[in-house]
Amino acid sequence: MLFSTLAAMTAGYALGVLLGTPIVLRADRYINMLCALLAPKISAKYQDSEEGQRAAGTAYVISVMLAAVLPLLIVLILLYIFVPVLAIIADALVCWSLTDIRGIGRISSAVCRASKTGAVSRGAKNAAALSGEDMTDADTETIIRASVQGNADRTVDTVGTLLAMFVLSGPGGVFFRACAPAAQAAVRQAELAGRRSFAYPAQKLRDVMYFLPGKLAAVIMLVDALFLKFNTRSAEKTMRRDSTKCFLRYYGGCRAVVAGIAGISLLPEEIVGENMTRTYTIGEHIKEPEPQDIIMANQLLSGTAFIVMLLCFAIKLTLGVWF
Q1: Pair 170, 96: CB distance under 8 Å
Q2: Which of 7, 150, 205, 252 could make an S-S bridge to 131, C-beta 3.0–4.6 Å?
Q3: 3-state class of 228 per DSSP?
């Protein structure tokens, strides 16, 4: 079983690196649709109070995870028992749907080219897809900053997905990748309903699941930067100083590393507290952002993912041999 899931995970990762994931196969697409469908329906079935919506949020998270993971898990278990070869192929396809590393590289290259040629609208569209930020009326410098930041965030996503697949192969990866979309859909529904408590359970699950990948991704990214002979001293300094200066703190470490290496500041972010609102910015404005900074950030993503995959492969292979 260990060797079979290792083969599926490795095949899925290799396909994601070499070919990228076709849109029709991307798991994120279907997870987003599922979350958008379930959030309003479940919220409407519970009492419109803070306690009622918190219970609704818990039911929503459980429903999303059961709907996304349980059928897939049952099918793969049955296939591994009765038709192992078909199970490996199916599991590899699931892993492929979760690791679109080549696709992220293509988008990064497209933003880099658009920034060099002055095609602002095309660059803004790709930067928005990469970073999830609103790029309306963004200038070239903002587009570059968003793209560098987006690569840092996708590094954490990719590392977390690989770790989850290491534990439970394809279904584990689906579980992890469902956490962030579930939280985003819950926040949108909470804002519409005026009950913030609906989003708490999904946000809590996301924060717990992303904690370790965020820490590990930043450390391994530093190791990869050392191999690539980047300015790791500046990266370490920025990480120690700025890694907590973002709302989603698990992204802070990788953002700080790429900002320190590039010598730029990333997008400013407002963090709203009970009594005040503060604006934080990761990195220092040592130089103007350059299109090549996007390629550098994407190289760090690919290298970090490769190192994590290599570690997962070695550990799983060792466990398979000894146990």
Answers
A1: no
A2: 150
A3: coil
Q: What is the mean pLDDT of residues 278-303?
A: 94
Q: Helices 232-242 and 200-227 sit at what angle, rounded to 10 degrees? A: 160
Contact 13, 309 (CB under 8 A): yes
**283 bridge partner residues:** 265
Q: Return the closest-CA partner of residue 282 out of 315, 247, 310.
A: 247
Percentages helix, strand, coil for the chain (3-state, rounded to 5) are 80, 5, 15
Report, as an integer, the average pLDDT of 214-218. Answer: 97
Encode pLDDT of 185-214 as tens digits: 999 999 887 878 999 999 999 999 999 999
This prediction has a pTM of 0.95
Residue with tokens 């649709």: 33
Residues 10 and 78: their CA atoms lie apart, in Å, by 21
288 near 245, Cβ under 8 Å? no
Can you tell me the distance from the alpha carbon of 220 to that of 254, in angstroms, rounded to the nearest whole number? Answer: 9
DSSP result, 287-313:
S---HHHHHHHHHHHHHHHHHHHHHHH
CA neighbours within 13 Å on the CB side: how many for 220? 24
Q: Which residues contact 22 (CB under 8 A, 6 or more apart)?
A: none
Q: Could you tell me which residue, 289 or 271, shows the higher pLDDT? A: 289
pLDDT exceeds 80 at position 321: no
